[in-house]
Amino acid sequence: MVRRFGNVVILCVTVAYCSRQVAIAVQAFAGKTSLADLKLGFFANITMVYTLSLAVSGISVVLYLNERRLHRKSRERLTERITKLELTLDPSRTSSHLTSRGLTRREDA
């Protein structure tokens, strides 16, 4: 579990730590009049709908990128096995010259 979700846990801990630091700063300015009131007033006008939609889209992007990375690793891992099985069935088979990632070679571009 740690290997699979370690990056996500680190990201969540970082976000939580930053949120905690912002909360401490807000508490320090509580009841005081300064230029920070103007900035805090602006952030207070952001509605919960926008906050939730941004959070959900951020989580979706992180999950998509993680799934894409895992798929790429699986494809690279299975490429050797598939090549070996194909050569076992047909030793005269020629290579498609695709990389282990399933991409064309740089010389083909």
Walk me through this protein's architecture:
This protein is mostly helical. It folds into 2 domains: 1-45; 49-90. The chain has helices spanning 2-29, 35-44, 48-89. It is elongated. The two termini are 40 Å apart.
Annotation keywords:
73% helix, 2 domains, 109 residues, 3 helices, mainly alpha
Write a brief structural summary.
The chain is mainly α and 109 residues long. It is 73% helix and 0% strand.
Determine the mean pLDDT.
78
- Report the major sheet: none
Encode the helix/strand succession as letters: HHH
Structural class: mainly alpha
Provide the domain count: 2
> What is the helix content?
over 70%
Globally, the shape reads elongated
Q: What percentage of amino acids are in beta strands?
A: under 5%
**Rg estimate, integer Å:** 25 Å
Tell me the span between the first and last alpha carbons. 40 Å
Write the layout of secondary structure elements.
Blueprint: H1 2-29, H2 35-44, H3 48-89
